[in-house]
Amino acid sequence: MPGTGFDRTVDVVVLGLGDAGAVAAVTAHDAGAQVLVLEKQTAERHRPNSRYAAGFFLVPNDIDAACRYLTASYAVSGEDTAVEPELIRTWAVETAANPAWLTAQGGEYSVLDLHGEHDALPDHGSVTVHRVLPSERAARWPGCPLFGLLRSLVDERGIEVRFGAAATGLITGPDGDVLGVRVDDGGREQRIGARRGVVLAVGGFEGDPALQRQFLPVPRAWFYGSQDNTGDGIRMAQQVGAELWHMNVWPGHFVARFPGNGYTGGTGIDVWGTGRFGPDPDRAVNPGAVFVDGAGQRFLAEPGRQHAAHLELLGMDAQRLSHPRIPTWWIFDERRFDKGPLVPTYSGPAGPVQDYTWSCDNVAELERGWIRSAATLHELAGLCGVDAEALTESVRRYNASCAAGRDEEFGRAPSTLVPLDGRRFFAVPLYPGGSHTVGGPRRDAGARVRGVGGTPVGNLYSAGELGSIHGLLYPAGGASLAECMAFGRIAGAAAAAADRTCAS
Question: Quick one: signal sequence residues (predicted)?
């Protein structure tokens, strides 16, 4: 889209006001640039993916080992020939710098006893998970405390944010360099010039079924986050010749869907009723649960690998032309039903952002038909459309494993082996999904968007989940928020430092 003649010109234009966009804007502003943030959501409905998160962020404790760990994760998915050592080292160095940066901004965090998720890979202990703590400054924006803190930083600096302003395309000059942005501002098109650069931080394509059908290996995945993430950055980057990567992968989970709740995405589940992914260390308080496929058979150590469990669901039966594990059925008894909400209420769409509410006792959801219930496993199987004898046998074998204190079939953690022997049984259908996609324009170590020929697209930068460094294997909880901060800083600093004259 070549051209000049702008309605307005600033130094740096940041597209998107999530964690990555906020950090990029703050960094560019602090470097002396005049910054304008364009956010397509309205101020009243501003719910970026960052706001749905729980505030975890990954921190390398050994730079060299963390580089080896991420490199090994690329090799598993066949990307070993595409590894860029400079990019991976930049990721490790900059994510390791996040705690100090947060502290300098007045943020506080705790350090958790959680490390690299994929213990089959070397150096998985080289990263540690931290969590941002709530603060008064963040409380104005209910949801993730990291987002609230970053949002306060933008406000405190007086950085201009235009809500309800959707970028529709990038404006380029004769040499292909990005000069500015086309914007739909409430139905009125404007051309905003950027003297130094444009930062794409608009998220992925969780809310776009067409892009999902094009790139993901299942007909549809269901994401819990902003349904306004519709691939805008991908389309804009493609228009100016960007190379795409990681389009067919995402950090996944088993996700529930509850049609009719006013929210079109998916929702994570709380298997143990602990308010977290893992079980409570006290075995006595962990309710029992199994996951079964469409044939009523268990197929993994529930609930699976945290950010890779969805990979267990993707296989297709080529004879029957179906996905036999979509849906998967979460089977439990009244121990879990009575323990508390079946979905997280500390994050996600049923959390503080309140896309919809979930009752404290699950009764309203049972009455709405979101949860299926029966007095016997045979009856429950009929409600789920699975083989009754197979489901009953699966639960019988599982209960025998509980009695023996070890899961001979799948090696599930002994602390989670609590039998299903209640007076009533329940089921919820589960689907592949997760928090966000990672595909988008490929970036280099300087957060520059890379063109299909290998050279950067001039004056165009990216940060966050749009073209994330993460591929098939998500390294650990909080990897995305860590990347948002790290590459938000890199992109903001690089854009502010550029020296270019843009016609106005």
Answer: none
Same domain assignment for residues 355 and 417: yes
Could you give the angle at the alpha carbon of 53 between the alpha carbons of 48 and 56, nearest 5°? Answer: 135
Q: Report how far residue 418's alpha carbon sits from residue 197's, in angstroms, rounded to the nearest whole number.
A: 56
For 437-485, write each residue's pLDDT tens digit. Answer: 999 999 999 999 999 999 999 999 999 999 999 999 999 999 999 999 9
How distant, in Å, are the alpha carbons of 131, 231, 235, 401 from that of 349?
Answer: 19, 20, 26, 35
CA distance 193 to 6: 6
Cβ pair 498, 29 in contact under 8 A: no
Number of H helices, E strands in the chain: 13, 19
- Nearest-angstrom CA–CA distance, 378 and 346: 35
CB 483 within 8 A of CB 86: no
pLDDT digits (tens, 9 = 90+) for 90-124: 999 999 999 999 999 999 999 999 999 999 999 99
Tokens at residue 504, please? 């106005």
Quote the CA–CA distance of 217 and 219 in Å, as a whole number: 7
One domain, residues 345 and 470: no
Give 316: exposed, middle or buried? Use CB within 10 Å, 0-12, 13-18, 19+. Answer: middle
DSSP 272: S
| Interacting residues of 41 by C-beta distance below 8 A, sequence separation 6+ | 47, 48, 163, 164, 226, 228
Q: Which two tokens stand for residue 146?
A: 């990291």
- In a shared domain, residues 286 and 190: no
Task: Quote the tokens at residue 98.
Answer: 């996040």
Do 161 and 150 belong to one domain? Answer: yes
197 - beta bridge partners? 12
Asked if 335 and 285 touch (Cβ cutoff 8 Å), the reply is: no
Q: Is residue 13 part of a domain?
A: yes
What is the number of domains present in the chain?
A: 2
CATH number at residue 462: 3.50.50.60
Question: Cα separation of 363 and 267, whole Å?
Answer: 18
Q: Identify the helix (H) or strand (E) that includes residue 9.
A: strand 8-15
Q: In this structure, is residue 378 part of a structural domain?
A: yes
- Whether 469 and 381 map to the same domain: the answer is no
- The domain in which residue 470 lies consists of 8-49+144-250+436-497
Q: Which of the residues in the chain have pLDDT under 70?
A: 1-4, 82, 281-284, 499-504
Residue that is written with structure tokens 């190379």 in the block: 243
Contact predicate 161/14, CB 8 Å: no
Whether residue 419 is found in the same domain as residue 472: no
In the numeric block, which tokens belong to residue 52? 């749905």
User: Is the CB of residue 470 less than 8 Å from the CB of residue 483?
Assistant: yes
| Rounded Cα distance, 58 and 117, in Å | 11
Q: What is the domain-level CATH number for residue 292?
A: 3.90.700.10
